[in-house]
Design a protein that fits this description.
With 441 residues, this protein is an alpha+beta fold. It folds into two domains: 223 residues, Enolpyruvate transferase domain (UDP-n-acetylglucosamine1-carboxyvinyl-transferase, Chain, Alpha-beta prism), CATH 3.65.10; 211 residues, UDP-n-acetylglucosamine1-carboxyvinyl-transferase, Chain (Alpha-beta prism), CATH 3.65.10. The protein is 29% helix and 24% strand. It contains 14 helices and 25 strands. The strands form seven sheets. The protein has a four-stranded mixed β-sheet with strand order 23-24-1-25. A four-stranded mixed β-sheet has the order 2-14-18-15, covered by helices on one side. Strand 21 and strand 22 form a beta hairpin. Helix 1 runs parallel beside helix 2, helix 1 packs parallel to helix 7 and helix 8 runs parallel beside helix 12.
Length: 441
């Protein structure tokens, strides 16, 4: 097992390009299985979750060609070899659940072993099964997985019982190949859901309401009616938020190339509440993304790093919620930033009951944190952080610990870094290019 050795106290700054959005790339690669005409997918991050999913997609029947840039793939799926997915690969990848819709649409049946992923609390599958059942699937639940069969998928009206991102994605993909029109209400609308919609639109599917919580999908009546397409994965706003945090906490000047300001609106609002600001700079020759202008994000020190109180000086609250509110995957990051800001703030993680347990590691580094319950923590800052030996529990908490170590005094050792590698491409080398003292041992 590899571990990171980090010597803190060095400014993180320079220029870096955001990787492709992990959470868009995963369902898009799954959706590629529906199209026998073939697709090209560009700007795919080279991370562990993607590598594992590509193994599954290839095992199912896809012919995958890696293009010259190393971040693009040509994928042709002439036939589905198996409808029962390999449990040894599915077990470590939560994103594998978005194979349900595509394989059901293509092979008429699918058995999905219970997927793995981050241990941040219960991850419901009910929304997926209810949505696919509404489209015509017969669902059987076993202790070790889920069997779905559907001779024909038919469009219908679906009200999701929660705004599940992957549940929405499964419903969208199945509806794309169904007969008739499907209306999905209470749909998730995150940038990666929008990216999946644009990928399907490029294949000839008509989708209305992209970016809203009500999607109207005009099914093409079968996978054989999909046409070849070329799609580019958008920038990963979660990785961008991570770089913003580490640069501000260490006092560096940073430029992040190829960002979409529309994806960062609420993130910018929340970071401004803890005293971190940035501006956008348009570069000549850059084109327009489907969801907005692609620009550079520019940060200049010094940073205020001061909690902005609510009216009448009351202690503010930072919480997560479905898009377009602050994303749950950045709660660990903003909590870590708050340890270095003067003032007090309540962090309220509403979605996952185990995500905040990593705070004991920050407390071991010297952070003043009161963990009120599994969902709420009070941060009193600023706190002097000291190097420590820690273990990464999940992708985002792992990156939060890396950021804390970069700002701490002395050396830190972070174990189980495969969790970080699942979401961040070649992160140690990229951080070294920004001035970090980090080694992979």
């Amino acid at each position: 097992m590899s571990e990171f050795h980090i010597i803190g106290g060095h400014k993180i700054g320079g220029t870096i390009t955001a990787q492709g959005n992990k959470n868009e790339a995963l369902p898009v690669l799954c959706a590629a299985l529906m199209n026998p005409a073939g697709v090209t997918i560009r700007n795919v991050p080279q991370i562990e979750d993607i590598k594992n999913l590509l193994k599954i997609v290839e095992a199912v029947g896809a012919e995958i060609t890696t293009l010259a840039d190393g971040h693009s793939y040509s994928i042709v799926t002439k036939d589905i070899k198996m409808s029962e997915l390999p449990s040894e690969l599915v077990a470590g990848l939560r994103g594998s659940i978005t194979l349900l819709g595509p394989i059901l649409a293509r092979a008429k049946k699918v058995f999905l072993p219970r997927p793995g992923g981050d241990k941040i609390g219960r991850r419901r599958v009910d929304t997926h099964l209810l949505a696919l059942s509404a489209l015509g699937a017969k669902v059987e639940v076993f202790n070790d997985g889920y069997m779905l069969e559907a001779a024909k998928l038919k469009g219908t009206a679906i009200l999701l019982d929660e705004a599940s991102v992957t549940g929405t994605e499964n419903a969208i993909m199945a509806a794309a190949c169904a007969e008739g029109v499907t209306l999905i209400e209470n749909a998730a609308s995150e940038p990666h859901v929008q990216g999946l919609c644009r990928f399907l639109i490029a294949q000839g599917v008509t989708i209305e309401g992209v970016g809203s919580n009500m999607l109207k999908i005009h099914g093409v009546g079968g996978f054989e009616n999909l046409k070849a397409a070329d799609h580019t994965i958008g920038p990963d706003y979660l990785e961008i938020g991570s770089f913003i945090a580490m640069s501000a906490m260490t006092g560096g000047d940073l430029v992040v190339q190829d960002v979409n300001p529309i994806d960062l609106r609420m993130i910018k609002f929340v970071f401004e509440r803890v005293g971190i600001n940035w501006r956008y700079h348009e570069r000549e020759g850059k084109g327009i993304a489907p969801s907005g202008q692609i620009v550079d994000l520019v940060m200049k020190s010094p940073y205020a790093l001061k909690i902005q109180t609510d009216v009448h000086g009351e202690i503010p609250k930072i919480d997560d919620a479905p898009w377009p509110m602050f994303p749950a995957d950045l709660i660990s990051i903003i909590l870590t930033v708050a340890t270095q800001c003067s003032g007090t703030v309540l962090i309220h993680e509403k979605l996952f009951e185990s995500r905040l347990y990593f705070t004991d590691k920050l407390m071991g580094m010297g952070a003043q944190i009161v963990l009120c319950d599994p969902h709420r923590a009070v941060i009193i800052g600023p706190s002097k952080l000291y190097g420590s030996r820690m273990t990464s529990p999940d992708i985002r908490a792992g990156m939060a610990l890396v950021i804390a170590a970069l700002a701490a005094e002395g050396e830190s050792v972070i174990q189980n870094i495969v969790q970080v590698d699942r979401g961040y491409e070649n992160i140690d080398a990229r951080l070294r290019s920004l001035g970090a003292k980090i080694e992979r041992i």
